[in-house]
Design a protein that fits this description.
The protein is mainly alpha-helical and 99 residues long. It has one domain. It has two helices and two strands, in the order ββαα. It has a two-stranded antiparallel ribbon. Strand 1 and strand 2 form a beta hairpin. Helix 1 packs antiparallel against helix 2. 4% of the residues are buried.
Length: 99
């Protein structure tokens, strides 16, 4: 038995994405978003490492730049770990559900 899609006037119903949200192919859009976020964290850490090297060699004129970059990298890493922990917790809860 086949289930036909709900339609309006003979055409299948397809909800429109919210304003500012790009309609992508499901997991592909989520995967890209996660990849972009991880690339951003990696770039932030690389910037902090570069400034730390400059500070250690004496090439950095303003130590505040390094402190700001190091704090940004630390916060980005903490946020990434918190999101990962919540995702693992959600997955564990789903796996415990009885069907």
């Amino acid at each position: 038995m086949a289930i036909s899609p709900i339609g309006v006037g003979g055409a299948p119903f397809a909800p429109k994405p919210a304003a500012g949200v790009e309609a992508t192919g499901g997991q592909d859009g989520f995967g890209k978003a996660v990849g972009n976020a991880l690339d951003s964290v990696e770039q932030t850490q690389a910037n902090a490492d570069d400034l730390a090297t400059k500070a250690a060699t004496g090439d950095l004129t303003d130590v505040h730049d390094y402190m700001i970059a190091a704090t940004q990298a630390s916060l980005a890493t903490e946020l990434t770990v918190a999101v990962r922990n919540k995702a693992v917790e959600a997955f564990t809860d789903i796996m415990r559900m009885q069907v």
